[in-house]
Amino acid sequence: MTLGQWFGFSAILCAIYILWQVRQALLLVFAAIVLATALNKLARWIQRFGIKRSWAVFFSISLLILGFITIFLLVVPPLFDQLQELATRVPRGLERGLQRLNLWINYLETQLPGEFWQNLFQVDLQINALIQQLQRIGNPLIGGVGAFVGNTLGGLLGFLLILVLTIMLLADPVAYRRAFIQLIPSFYRQRLNGILDQCEIALGLWVVGALIDMSVVAVCSLAGLLVLQVPLAFANAILAGLLNLIPNIGPTLSVIPPMAIALLEDPWKAGFVFILYFLIQQAESNFLMPYLMAQQVSLLPAITLLSQGFFLTFFGFLGLLLALPLTVVGQVLVQEILIRDILDHWKQ
Questions:
Q1: Is 4 inside any structural domain?
Q2: 167 and 191 assigned to the same domain
Q3: CB atoms within 10 A of CB 226
Q4: How many domains does the chain have?
Q5: In this structure, are 307 and 220 located in the same domain?
Q6: For burial by CB atoms within 10 Å, which of 54, 128, 135, 217 has the most?
Q7: CA–CA distance, 38 with 43 (Å, rounded to integer)
Q8: 293 CB contacts (<8 Å, ≥6 apart)?
Q9: How far apart are the C-alpha atoms of 188 and 191, rounded to whole Å?
Q10: String of b and e for 163-197 (b: at least 16 CB within 10 Å)?
């Protein structure tokens, strides 16, 4: 290799290292791009009614902020209070159940004495020890609320950064695209502009499919929780729809709050809530999501699952949250750049 080639190779390695070090910031920028794409689609729809671009963008951002504030007020405070109450009531309920069990054991001991009850008393002692451990665990959880809130502030700052970047991108998207394309060699700029158009279309289709999927899951969850008369049905339904953005893991997390709240009412309700969410997620993952993804973007289920594991491993929770849109964009880039522009023209 010549000196110039070594210099170019070293520059590429340095660029990769720098990009890796700032990967979390790049993820925030990509999140802003996804959000800006969704809002831009909404703004274009509003413009059809003869409204100027600036006002359409203002209405889109206002709807986004209003939606987040509404969801936060409807979901976070009541669920937080219920889960905090659950942390104190579950050990008490177990202790009360243990007392009733002791009364039954004392009664049966007078009726059916024998060695069997001696073994049962050993189980009773183990259950008592388990209850004490649960009480010791529950108290730090309740006391750790302040630490949880402190960690949430970091997420709030990240969200504010994403919101500011989204507003900037929406204000003049053409200028930012032009600035990015200028970093590419001149012979490939026109081709890259077309590829970015395809990425924007793919992201827009994914956003539409994700919104439909979230809405169906939220409505079905709301209907089922209302039938079961589980408190905070509306808040839990919204939470189920939002967590559905995280395939495989999100639906599993969404069932925990309604089951915990149902446990405070009647234990049998918790089982029915689990069955309800299981049926909804089976219908969503086997029928609704495959149909929407086939209609909107062509993503193979195995690729979707592998991408979640990859982005979770290397980029953390934010990578998991953005796994699907990253995969959608990555699929377009692989098809257009790697396959069509490189491999299809590769000559021996």
A1: no
A2: no
A3: 12
A4: 2
A5: yes
A6: 217
A7: 9
A8: 209, 299
A9: 5
A10: bebbbebbeebeeebeeeeeeeeeeeeeebeebbe
- In this structure, the answer to whether residues 120 and 195 fall within a common structural domain is no
Share of the chain above pLDDT 70, in %: 74
Question: Among 122, 141, 171, where does a domain finish?
Answer: 171
The pLDDT tens digits of the residues spanning 278-334 come to 999 888 877 777 777 666 667 766 777 788 778 888 888 788 888 888 888 888 888
Residue tagged 């692989």 (tokens): 334
| Contact indicator for 39, 57 with CB cutoff of 8 Å | yes
Distance CA 185, CA 165 (A): 26
346: phi then psi, degrees, rounded to nearest 5:
-75, 125
Q: If we measure between CA atoms, which residue out of 146, 143, 140, 137 comes closest to residue 91? A: 137
3-state secondary structure the chain: CCHHHHHHHHHHHHHHHHHHHCHHHHHHHHHHHHHHHHHHHHHHHHHCCCCCHHHHHHHHHHHHHHHHHHHHHHHHHHHHHHHHHHHHHHHHHHHHHHHHHHHHHHHHHHHCCCHHHHHHHHHHHHHHHHHHHHHHHHHHHHHCHHHHHHHHHHHHHHHHHHHHHHHHHHHCHHHHHHHHHCCCCHHHHHHHHHHHHHHHHHHHHHHHHHHHHHHHHHHHHHHHHHHHCCCCHHHHHHHHHHHCCCCCHHHHHHCHHHHHHHHHHCHHHHHHHHHHHHHHHHHHHHHHHHHHHHHHCCCCHHHHHHHHHHHHHHHHHHHHHCHHHHHHHHHHHHHHHHHHHHHHHCCC
Q: Cβ atoms within 10 A of the Cβ of 62, count? A: 10
Altogether, the residues listed in the chain come to a count of 348
Q: 259, 270 in Cβ contact below 8 A? A: yes
Q: Alpha-carbon torsion 268, 271, 275, 278, what sign?
A: positive
Q: How many whole angstroms separate alpha carbon 267 and alpha carbon 53?
A: 54
Given a cut of 50, is residue 152 above it in pLDDT?
Answer: yes
193 and 341 housed in the same domain: yes
User: What pLDDT score does 154 carry?
Assistant: 62
